[in-house]
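Could someone model zinc ion with this protein?
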Amino acid sequence: MTIYYVNKKPEKTGEHLVHKKECEHRPAYENCDYLGYFAKPDEAVRQAEIFLENISSCEFCCKEE
Ligand SMILES: [Zn+2]
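Reply:
Sure, complex below.
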């Protein structure tokens, strides 16, 4: 299980990116919302979709294993 965050500010593409806590691409804590502990990035994305639209997962920390 890993802690996930979602970027409050959308990327240029309009997407809000989900990151793992330890990702070096994660924005500062004040610029992201805590999602919680999840086993897979997909689950964190679903959680973020409850309160944000157009969610994608970070290609660096959320790649399929
Ligand atoms: Zn990331």
